[in-house]
Amino acid sequence: LLTGANWALCLLLALLTILRSGVDPWVFGPFRVDSLALFLGAAVTLVSAVVHSFSLRFMEGDARYDAFFPRLSALASTVLGLLATDNLLLFAGLWVLMGWLLADVIGHIRGWRQALAAAALARTWFLRGSAALVAGLVVLAAATGSLSISGVIAGAATANTALLALGCALLGGAAAIQSGLFPFHRWLMSSMTAPTPVSAFMHAGLVNAGGILIARFAPAFDAVPFVLLLVFLAGAASALFGAVAALVQTDVKRGLAASTTAQM
After folding, report:
1. pTM for this one?
2. pLDDT of 97-106, one tens digit each?
3. Which among 9, 143, 180, 219 could bridge 153 via Cys, Cβ 3.0 to 4.6 Å?
């Protein structure tokens, strides 16, 4: 049922992406669904649907088979919420929830000490990333006087430059941690204790939340070129580090993790 629902939602979002390209966004409550949210939502649900389909057989015989799929769907739903929400408080809450769910599935094999250690390490880094995100959103809200993402973007051009730069730098740090960039890559490298479908979902989808964060606040970053330069340098360093690290790994999954750091 959950696998079928993911495929149906993927097709729906892909169709809406085509039909509503260039059209004014839907706004209802704290949510604002624009073309970017629809496009990225279609990509997220596609990855989720493929991973769900693969997991149907791969996870057969797993002691916690029935618990696996709801958590996987909850992760996809949380990311969809991140894409659609326009409220800073809700965005922060969904970001924290995403980190908690991801750490939980990394430690899916409850009796394996290494898996539990990897989950604990990931949870520690996600909490640090969440703290940076919350601090950044608070600073941006203070700089622009708005509690919505659209309000922050609209007020970025006239906001206090120092506050805007600090807020964007904190968001950049949160994005770097979520994407496993150097030097925050250890949680991603150790997360290979997770079942292969979880690793696939991380490498093809969840680590992209860092990129999604930057994309959602892109106009604010554009207003502070110095911070944008720092983001670029962090990405360049991670691309070089990840490409070299991938060459010296002794197993396929850790090599994949290093290449993910480079791609992010």
Report:
1. 0.86
2. 988 888 888 8
3. 219
